[in-house]
Amino acid sequence: MNAPRxxxxxxxxxxxxxxxxxxxxxxxxxLWSDWHIEHIGTHRNGSIPLxxxxxAVGLVSFTYTVIRRRPDVVHLHTASYGSFVRKxxxxxxxxxxxxxxxxxxxxxxxxxxxxxxxxxxxAVIRATLTEADAxxxxxxxxxxxxxxxxxxxxxxxxxxxxxxxxxxxxxPDGRPVNxxxxxxxxxxxxxxxxxxxxxxxxxxxxxxxxxxxxxxxxAVDAAAQQVAELGIEDTVTIAGWAAPExxxxxxxxxxxxxxxxxxxxxxxxxxxAMAAGLCVVASPVGGIPDLVDADSGILVPxxxxxxxxxxxxxxxxxxxxxxxxxxxxxxxxxxxxDVDVVSRRFDALYREVGRCPVRCD
Length: 361
Description:
Layout: E1 6-10, H1 18-26, H2 30-34, E2 38-41, H3 48-69, E3 73-78, H4 82-96, E4 101-105, H5 110-116, H6 119-131, E5 134-137, H7 140-149, E6 155-157, E7 177-182, H8 191-204, E8 210-215, H9 220-230, E9 236-240, H10 244-252, E10 256-259, H11 268-275, E11 279-282, H12 288-291, E12 297-299, H13 305-317, H14 319-337, H15 339-353
Parallel strand pairs: 1-2, 1-3, 3-4, 4-5, 5-6, 7-8, 7-10, 8-9, 10-11, 11-12
Protein name: Glycosyltransferase family 4 protein
GO molecular function, one term: glycosyltransferase activity
Keywords: Glycosyltransferase, Transferase
């Protein structure tokens, strides 16, 4: 029998962000080889003309692959806004070719995107979700929101995944307690609230044995200006965007990850930190409560520098509590978010919806 084949479509794996990180992680699993997965990128970082060209090239490649190579399943990774427009176009092409479609929704603001669309566009969104053979939501909250949009769609929950690492040591050893912010620098991720909270701790003298690193693209210059205005240059590094290989080093050298976002999907940054045994301080928005519980981190309200400062004060100064939460985070990843566990969920789904009901190798 012919070997089973699945076509994945997402942003390029060289782009920045959680979707690209997730795809790179999955490429290292048996799922990729067992199902002979081919990946097509339809988006990349850069100017608008460059992104238009990237989609045009991806569209041609996708159409050719669907018509001539006939994969058993098309697995589309989408966010909101323009990303969904691109993936909806591809979903209907695959549907016309009678190839099963899995629509994997990563967008943190998908429900807002839907509500902002005019009625005809909302009808297309509902139809696209309904006609997909399966729609993957990252958590129960997102599943409920998608089900409200498209009541007849088949929504299933499959979380993001990561490969567990050797956990960092949380024991006091004379080194600074390094705190890491990893994500797009700006209002949505709570960067400026974090710097305000950190300044309060610095002025109290709490962070004399700690250091905060801000790693990510976005409003980097504005963050650097705020650091200077707050007078906390000695305890804060604005590192800018970090390539995947550099992220591994940042995680290895840190003990706490802080991400006080206003809005989120299911951040790969948090999963990667938990997989390295870091203690997590984050906000209970989007899919974050699906990842972090009372045994693996501290959740504080967004836009609340007082609460954020209190949480950071606790985990910076209390070695035992930080160690407890870091160990809990690592265990939680191993049991619920290990990439090998999640990849088996995809394997079962492909066999269910695809044209190859069992592995054909």
